[in-house]
Amino acid sequence: MTMRRRIQKMRRFLLGLGFSLLAPAAFAACPAPPGPPDTGIRRVTDGDTLVLADGRHVRFVGIDAMELGHDGAADQAYAAQARDRLKQLIVEHGGKLRLGAGVDSYDEHGRSLAYVFAGGEDLGLELIREGLAVLVAVPPDLSQLDCYAQAEAQARNLRLGIWSKTSPLVTDTSHAELKPGTFLILRGEITGAVRSSFGLKLLLDGKLPLWISAGDLRRFGTDPAELKGRRVLVRGWLRSYRGAAELDVHAPQALLPQP
């Protein structure tokens, strides 16, 4: 191996290490559950939403479970399993819930945003740990990211659920339908990087722009532009920008360099 190749290999190793050690609290325990009162539940809608006994609709903060089919559409893989496992977890932990409010009180659909606990356990964390949900970084609610990232890494290493070899949910960019409004988990290579005063735009496999705003760049301990030429794993909701799909990356936990 030439000296130049050795240097390049070492640089890639250090870059990957830098992204894996982005914060001192990367392996910190999840925050303790909030205090009383407990509340009852009317029904579980899917793996990340439920209806409380008082009629409030709650959307879990910091996670995304796959979608159940509507209007004749098929369920996404692991959607029904996530819903059923959430029901089971609630029963196992006594049937009562405690909510940890998010920074934002409601989402665009009017649902309450909260971390949901039962019997002292973070139910969103449990679903991530079992590979039935993935972490999402949606500012300003980022307090559980480090904890959720550790749990998700364990699920990926064990190839559980969404991360299993047979899962259809983790796809190469070339095989994905890049339709605005959809949530995707994508593998691909960063083929370009363009910086401006507004932030950094990375190009995934030459076809999907990944946008990191200047404010979001402050969360990265290592310059994401250094990922050019590397394969990455990224997830998020696609949005439309000038008639084409684009994906916002708000935190390093959502953009992971691959070996």
Task: Tell me the β content.
Answer: 25-35%
Please give the radius of gyration in angstroms: 19 Å
Number of helices: 5
Highest CATH level, the class of the largest domain: Mainly Beta
* Largest sheet data: 6 strands, mixed
CATH architecture heading of the largest domain: Beta Barrel
Number of domains: 2
Taken in chain order, the helices and strands follow as: HEEEEHEEEHEHEEEEHEEE
Label the overall shape.
Answer: globular
| Beta strands, count | 15
Fraction of residues in helices? 10-25%
CATH topology of the largest domain: OB fold (Dihydrolipoamide Acetyltransferase, E2P)
Describe the structure.
The protein is an alpha+beta fold and 259 residues long. It folds into two domains: 41-163, OB fold (Dihydrolipoamide Acetyltransferase, E2P), CATH 2.40.50.90; 170-257, Nucleic acid-binding proteins (OB fold (Dihydrolipoamide Acetyltransferase, E2P)), CATH 2.40.50.140. Helices cover 22% and strands 32% of the residues. It has five helices and 15 strands. Strands 1, 2, 3, 5, 6 and 7 form a six-stranded mixed sheet that branches. Strands 10-11-12-14-13 form a five-stranded mixed beta barrel. Helix 3 (123-129) runs parallel beside helix 4 (145-158). The two termini are 19 Å apart. The model is unreliable at 3-28 (pLDDT under 50).
Give a concise summary:
This protein is of the alpha+beta class and 259 residues long. It contains 5 helices and 15 strands.
